[in-house]
């Protein structure tokens, strides 16, 4: 039904059937168009534009919902506990909507499998595998999946909604970014990738549009659920529905262009190198020509010289870019953590004094051997956002705080928690973080205090104050004892000396008295018998 053909009565009928508004709210919105008898006097007339505007202004409907209602559609606005607010994106495999929980009113993203795919068991199996893959990843740089649900014949995944802008749109809006911000953005993405790789998942489609920057300056990797798991079963499900090369041609590694299922962690690193180039230059490295020509360029042509387009890029960043863009995987950085470490080191060495105060050496996640299975959640997120500093123990995956506090907000991410790499995980340092244990001496010798920022007792918050759990900070001078407190050790020492000297003397006295008593008893017995 076209908008011009829809009367007010038609629109109200569709609106009531949708369940988007309760009857009282609808009647209240209609009040200006009712006559004195309370009847709507424009029922057979086209819907007044002012009525549509009133619905939007009252926040009863979103623009997307109103557009669907004007087309005569009233189904599909509610899925289980969620009300769909607007369409975020659509593709052949799924559509993604912004939705709101009907009770808690928090925003989520809903990924819906098309109804026509439900009867195809392999599509449904792949959709479920995507949900499982996303749900097992819990890291501040990866968008999370919360649930897999169905409503009638509709199957959908409940995902974390990130209020931000993807890096492709950011560059289109603002142009090429500053070097320091790019270094921090790529560092964050590499940190999230390292976590996913350690969990046995390869993304295969890293590109600026799949990296979203939230309001706090934290990068989140999208579509991690479409990653290739290190299992033949998951790979076969993906092969069955490969109608095109998996991955975006502008950011595709050479080995992935030859066979999309030969990708490994180093393929993601190549794609991240292409993304780094895009953020600094404003276009992909091989963006010209047909799909075939671009794939051939990835396989055979040397990467474009970054310094020709951006002569302000420092040598360490340019060298890292060229390494990430090597044609052979063995010539690239062998882990995403290696990329993150290189960028963290550069950010730290080029930080202002204020930024350097918040810098900690990066923690490297333990590497898996080729035959070892994926690691399961070895750590959790501490926090991320402006001014936050790193810590240990939290929710998936935190890593050292941004070495320099990036221009984009200085987001702080932490890596998987493990043994302190500085070797300062001593009894004194551990007990310093535990309140209510007065019998443990939490003082630390000067040598221990100099072990570095890895010492838990010596950590400070982003504001420079001692952490809330610290009982005695490393190097802090203890208060002088009072006169009564000073006398206690002397009294304890005197009593101890009396115990050491007096107890043996008392023993011998008692022994001699016993001997004398025995002799006296013996003499008395002899006399009585004589």
What does this structure look like?
The protein is α+β, with helices and mostly antiparallel strands. It has four domains: 1-75, no CATH class; 78-161, Phosphorylase Kinase, domain 1 (2-Layer Sandwich); 176-357, Transferase(Phosphotransferase) domain 1 (Transferase(Phosphotransferase), domain 1, Orthogonal Bundle), CATH 1.10.510.10; 420-475, no CATH class. 40% of the residues lie in helices and 10% in strands. It is built from 19 helices and eleven strands. Strands 1-2-3-4-6-5 form a six-stranded antiparallel beta sheet. The protein has a three-stranded antiparallel beta sheet with strand order 7-9-10. Strand 9 (211-214) and strand 10 form a beta hairpin. Helix 6 (121-135) crosses helix 9 and helix 8 runs antiparallel to helix 15 (336-349). The longest helix has 47 residues, at 483-529. It is extended and about 145 Å long. The N and C termini lie far apart (140 Å). Mean pLDDT is 73; it is low at 230-245, 358-366 and 369-478.
Strands in their spatial order, largest beta sheet:
1-2-3-4-6-5
Distance between the termini: 140 Å
Low-confidence runs (pLDDT<50, min 5 residues)? 230-245, 358-366, 369-478
Main beta-sheet annotation: 6 strands, antiparallel
Cα shape: extended
Main CATH class of the largest domain: Mainly Alpha
H and E order? HHHHEEEEHHEEEHHEEEEHHHHHHHHHHH
Radius of gyration: 35 Å
Count of discrete alpha- or pi-helical segments spanning 4 or more residues: 19
> Which class do the helix and strand fractions yield?
alpha+beta
Query: How much β-strand is present in the residues?
Result: 5-15%
Portion of residues within helices: 40-55%
CATH architecture of the largest domain: Orthogonal Bundle
CATH H-tier superfamily of the largest domain: Transferase(Phosphotransferase) domain 1
Tally of individual domains: 4
- Structure summary, number of beta strands: 11
CATH fold node name of the largest domain: Transferase(Phosphotransferase), domain 1
Question: Mean of residue pLDDT?
Answer: 73
